[in-house]
Specification:
33 strands; alpha+beta
Length: about 750
């Protein structure tokens, strides 16, 4: 960083300011630059702003996280990199895993390995601190190894004379792997196995089986594929299990006593852990007519998971729980996640609670955190609560419905009004739910129902999360914010142009706000393209993440926001609990004094584990959907085009939400060219267009449960529309082949409505 200059009556040169931005270890805003160079006076400030605008126009700098600037082509202070080679001097060279620049990324030199970091080799991905050198290269100091070189695969084994063939479950592998007899590990026909990739022999891919995971047709095979493909940790070390088993109930001690307050948990019918409970009542204060008093109580995980313990290290490594249609891979062992940290009805449990007072308009007047002991009055489901609100008395006792449920909805109505005034981004995207008829037998896949009771819990959790963020700021404690940046202007512009083609107008020329998108979504509700518009808006958004650097939450239209409400399943929430314990002096099990110094890399790590979990969950859901469709080859389904690429169309089927590829070669009436700007394929002779959002009828040609791919063709191009398509014959093991689905849709994301966002 350049030395701070004395106050001057002249503006620093553009090169000096650009060098300052480039050398800064983190993005800087205009105020920080002006403060550093002591730029004062109206004339200088006007010239300074014009200089920054010119740097941005010339693409020498770019906006990062709102109004902060980075030199174009720069890297963050902490990031994930992949080692690419070893140079002639023996130095490790790397490149960033994520790179948004138009030019080649800068060269990264990896510093010598420090104690505690496993051996780093070519292909290894590591989380590292990045420091820019004067020549534009970077030095990377490893923080932790994220993954070794890609040398393992999951596949299905087929024995042959002299060994066997392994068909990878990863559709990116275009050919099978040969397994020599000595490397087969006694694997049998159809077994799902984990294998190490060996050195190719005469151009032939080879592998060695190291673990048998079960038969490919076992009920749990689909989730196992997703778990192992995404390196989700499953087994807990014995020390972790022993520590969890030794946990005991918490005593009242200095805790506040909430045991007589009828707090209730509200979750899905298949939930096994209950980490949040809620209560509301009218505010009796005459100064707050129509106001409400809320209590949100969260399991006191920090009491059981102490910093530096085996439990803590295991929870950090996992980062979060992972949810599959048939199981959960928890962040904490069952003795805690389903035991002492689960707010079971009529059992005393330690909790962290926040009391919140709101006015009749839903605006928060005050809040206070306490460490408490509670006893849940009931374990309720969303369906029960919704039925009780609508007058049904057979699901919930009338006394509970009147005394507990009615006030909850009263407070929710006020909170919802405040949400609407704030102008949040509300995307209504269907979430497929897999329903089973028995172990591994899929009964159906349908959109998950969504009630006001879901929204009620979400609003209570958001209110508690905001209170946690505000309290940590007031206390000067390290905070792990849940941040959501403004969307990239280029993506917004592309969205604006496409929406104009659909007849929508997204205002131009002002700072984009969440309500700008909400207005479009409201217009789309009465039209047939509502789901398409929601998906397009989602694709334009930035990805939420964890960081100690607060930039606010764009989607929720909130200036400060933390995750506080699910410490059973998110390590970020546990960090927030510990920071509150330390700042409010609730005990000795709070955040350590030095732990805040590591929040940058902690945030990067848990953001990475979250992305890993989302990818694994999406992968499993897609495979379950394909398995459900296997016996429906030849059937015709209604759907919509939700992706247009140079190699074909992606179609989402209405009934199941399944995505399948319609290859370009199957559009046999013309030669089609991809118009990337218009999101369409255009026939060169007839000028027919297939455009994003078009309703189509698609015939299912192939459902590949091994790779999770669906192959479709438009019904109008079927050879015989009156009868079912003939399924393709099985491919002989070892034959070169091409995966039928080259991708899963550009920028497609699976977004669940989990509590507190």
């Amino acid at each position: 960083m350049a030395r701070r200059p004395k106050e001057s009556s002249t503006l620093p040169s553009r090169d000096v300011i650009l060098a300052f931005i480039r050398e800064s270890p983190k993005p800087v805003d205009a105020r920080e630059i002006a403060r550093h160079f002591r730029i004062k006076g109206s004339e200088l400030r006007v010239a300074f702003k014009e200089l920054l605008r010119s740097l941005e126009a010339e693409k020498l700098v770019e906006k990062h996280r709102g109004q902060r600037l980075t030199a174009r082509g720069g890297l963050p202070a902490v990031g994930v990199i992949e080692v690419t080679k070893i140079d002639e001097d023996g130095e490790l060279l790397a490149r960033p895993v994520v790179w948004h620049g138009h030019d080649e990324p800068p060269m990264i030199y990896v510093a010598p390995e420090r104690h505690g970091i496993p051996a780093i080799e070519v292909g290894t991905r590591i989380l590292a601190r990045l420091t820019r050198a004067a020549d534009g290269t970077y030095e990377a100091k490893p923080v932790r190894v994220i993954a070794g070189r890609p040398q393992e695969i999951i596949g299905i084994f087929t024995p042959t004379q002299g060994g066997g063939w392994l068909r990878s479950t990863d559709r990116r592998h275009k050919s099978d792997f040969f397994v020599p007899a000595q490397s087969a590990g006694n694997a049998r026909e159809g077994e799902l196995v984990r294998a190490e990739v060996a050195e190719p022999h005469r151009g032939q891919s080879r592998a060695k089986i190291v673990e048998k995971l079960g038969h490919a047709e076992d009920p749990d095979a689909i989730s196992l594929i997703a778990i192992h493909s995404h390196d989700i940790p499953v087994a807990f070390p014995q020390a972790v299990l022993d520590e969890a088993a030794a946990a005991r109930p918490a005593a009242l001690g200095d805790r506040s006593d909430l045991r007589k307050i009828p707090l209730v948990t509200i979750d899905g019918p298949d939930a096994r852990d209950f980490d949040d409970a809620v209560f509301a009542e009218p505010d009796s204060d005459p100064k707050n007519p129509g106001g409400w008093r809320l209590i949100v109580a969260i399991a006191d995980v920090a009491h059981y998971v102490r910093p530096g313990s085996p439990l803590d290290k295991s929870a950090y490594d996992r980062g979060n729980s992972v949810y599959f249609p048939d199981r959960v891979v928890p962040m904490l062992p069952e003795a805690l996640s389903n035991g002492w940290c689960s707010l079971k009805p009529d059992e005393e449990r330690a909790c962290m609670a926040v009391r919140i007072v709101i006015d009749r308009h839903g605006e928060k007047l005050s809040h206070r955190f306490e460490r408490s002991l509670m006893r849940s009055a009931a374990r309720l489901t969303y369906e029960q609560v919704e039925a009780a609100r609508n007058g049904a008395t057979d699901e919930i006792p009338e006394q509970l419905s009147v005394a507990v449920i009615a006030p909850l909805y009263g407070a929710f109505t006020a909170l919802l009004a405040a949400r609407h005034r704030r102008g949040t981004l509300d995307l209504d995207l269907p979430e497929p739910k897999v329903e089973f008829a028995g172990p591994g037998r899929i009964a159906r896949i349908r959109p998950a129902p969504h009630y006001d009771s879901h929204k009620l819990i979400e609003e209570f959790m958001i209110a508690a999360n905001v209170a946690a963020a505000e309290t940590l700021e007031e206390l000067g404690q390290p905070a792990m914010y849940r941040i959501h940046d403004r969307p990239d202007p280029e993506k917004v512009e592309a969205l604006r142009e496409f929406l104009e083609g659909l007849g929508y107008r997204l205002a131009k020329g002002h700072v984009i706000q969440p309500k700008s998108f909400t207005g479009i979504l409201d217009q789309a509700k009465d039209r047939g393209d509502a789901s398409l518009v929601s998906e397009l808006v989602l694709r334009s958004q930035a990805q939420a993440q964890y960081s100690p650097d607060n930039i606010g939450h764009f989607g929720l239209a909130l200036r400060r926001y933390c995750h506080f409400t699910s410490p059973i399943r998110r390590y970020a929430d546990l960090l927030v609990h510990r920071a509150l314990v330390a700042g409010l002096r609730f005990g000795i099990d709070g955040l350590r004094a030095d732990q805040g110094e590591h929040f940058v890399e902690l945030g990067a790590h848990i953001s990475a584990t979250e992305r890993r979990a989302v990818a694994a969950e999406r992968d499993a859901l897609e495979r379950y959907t394909v398995a459900y469709m296997e016996d429906k080859v030849g059937a015709i389904f209604p759907g919509r085009i939700n992706g247009v690429t140079r190699f074909g169309l992606f179609v989402r089927l209405d009934e199941t939400g399944a995505d399948g590829l319609v290859p370009m070669r199957s559009l046999r009436d013309d030669f089609y060219v991809h118009d990337e700007h218009g999101h369409c394929l255009i026939g060169q002779r007839r000028k027919r267009r297939f455009t994003l959002g078009d309703a189509v009828a698609a015939r299912l040609v192939e459902a590949d449960a091994v790779t999770g791919g669906l192959l479709l063709e438009l019904a109008e191009f079927s050879d015989d529309e009156s009868g079912p398509a003939r399924p393709r014959p099985p491919r002989p093991p070892g034959q070169q082949h091409h995966r039928r689905q080259e991708g899963r849709g550009k920028d497609r994301r699976h977004k669940g409505r989990r509590k507190g966002r």
